[in-house]
Amino acid sequence: MPLARDYVAQVRGFNANARWYLVYTFMSGIGFGIYGLFYNLYVLSLGRTPAFLGFLVALPLVVVTVLAVPAGILGRRVGYRNTLLLGTVVLSLSLIGACAAPSAAGLITFALGFGVVQALLDVSNAPFVAENSRPFERTHLFSVQFAVRLFASFFGSLGAGLLPAQLARLLRVGAETPAAYRATLLLSAVIFLLALLPLLRVRRALSPRDEREEDSRRIGRLSRAEVAALTKLFVPQAVIGIGAGALVPFLNVFFKVRFGVSDGLLGVLFALQAVAMGLATLAGPAVAARLGRVRTVVLTQLLSIPFLAILGFVPSLPLASIGFLARAGLMNMGLPLYSAFAMDQVDETRRATANALLVMSSQGSRALSSWAGGLLQQGPGFSPIYALTITCYLAASALTHRFFLRTAPAKSP
């Protein structure tokens, strides 16, 4: 297959840093698959309300919004590899702390720690990938890295669906009890620690000291043209964040509440979602080569909306599952393409700043909507949340089209 041969040729050309980072991405992705599937259910199993869960989901995003620019400066000064190492260590320790201290104060403390982690990891990822790739292979490396994380999430979700029941037997507790979920989350913390091993093999790519210092001084002196360009990049992401934050973190809760699915079936659904997203991500560069990156982003976002409506409003588990998988694949096909496009719009010394602003815009809006999403679940339920998300996706697609489609090249470089 031409697409497969193209990817094989591109991967062979990746440098050693990029390859080791892909191994780290795979190992940490397994941990995130387990964590993402069961952390919300763990909180609810402790007797916490959906409103409190929404607050916990929103709190890390607030921290990310506050720390995104400082995290970008830190990554530029000490190296993105080192910030990734620090973030992974803090993630493991915070997750262990949330399991050891399941009180409201303990869960809030973990949420704050997880916010620090997200700031370090999210802000460092795109500049690290850009730093360790050449322009002609950058789109492929972004897509491969994103796909590797998703395929790892497949194994994490699939295995995690069976873990609580197996661990419950060992602990002699119920399968959907806090003890079973706690043991499952502790296993993900161990996997995060193991993911440090390939990351330690990455050699830090240093920029000259005077360039790093000049970059840190210039962050506060953006010109009007630079501010306008960065605003166009992050406004559509902020709008998407409003819609996604209210819904996406709670999709596991949605399936439990609406359809009463078991942990095992929930694991299968989220594993299949990871496969759908991974395949769509790998296909993204080929589609972008024909349509252009911006057109691909806009088109896939729009095509995802009917499936989002099926997921939210059709009272049939098989049809909702199809909507769940199709929405995930289409909506996420454009994410690495947009990241690569954004990194190409700024000078190398501005990438950390640009990515920090992208993270701030997305996570800040997600923080507000996640808190609101938790409150809505306790009141009218999920229907208004789906209506909000659909509206935001339509608006974000229109903004991306307006800002970039007229000036973007017909084909990706």
CATH fold field value: Growth Hormone, Chain: A
CATH H-level name... which superfamily? MFS general substrate transporter like domains
Spans of at least 5 consecutive residues whose pLDDT stays below 50 are 206-220, 408-413
Strand content is: under 5%
Helix content: over 70%
| Envelope shape | globular
What is the N-to-C succession of helices and strands? HHHHHHHHHHHHHHHHH
Radius of gyration: 20 Å
- How large is the count of helical segments? 17
* CATH architecture name: Up-down Bundle
Structural class: mainly alpha
Mean pLDDT: 84
SSE order and pairing:
Elements lengths: L1 H12 L2 H30 L4 H29 L1 H21 L3 H28 L6 H34 L6 H17 L1 H5 L8 H10 L5 H24 L3 H9 L3 H29 L1 H21 L3 H17 L1 H10 L6 H28 L4 H23 L8
